[in-house]
Amino acid sequence: LLGSFWTMRAAIPHMRAQGHGRIVNTSSAVGAFGAPEFSLYSAAKAALIGLTRSAAQEHLDIDLRINAVAPVAETALAKGFFTLNPMLDGSMFAVKHVTPMVTYLCHSDCMLNGEVLTAGAGRYARIWSATSVGILSPGIEDGAFADILPALSSRDGEIEPWNALDEFILVSS
Questions:
Q1: CA distance 77 to 80
Q2: pLDDT, tens only, 112-129
Q3: Nearest residue to 73 via CA among 102, 36, 107
């Protein structure tokens, strides 16, 4: 997390001076979805998702795109994960399957910004955060919360906020 933060902090002024740039951070499916035995790693990789999305929103005035890749690949750092999950065939998860995605995200034609993409074993996908429509019930009393859980869990009308302000607007609408 800090390595990415300090590198971005050093690079962004130069990119802003030239009016464009591309940054690709490396997160992880473990950061997006969690995994037992990887709490510290998961927290750092989840923080990279927040860093990527926030930094992308801070530089909308120029052609600066900041995205993250969550590779599903057998690397030296992922060895522990594959050891704990022997049912996975590590040979399927070669790093070469991630390269086309990273190459695109670094290209000047890339218009994606603040996205988290995943690549592994030839599968490419987008990871995102969403919120249910929810329920507005400011007068709810203790003991009644369980009654509204089904409405909170419904994915009908799921919303994908671009930033935290979008979430606050949902609450106030």
A1: 7
A2: 999 999 998 888 999 999
A3: 102
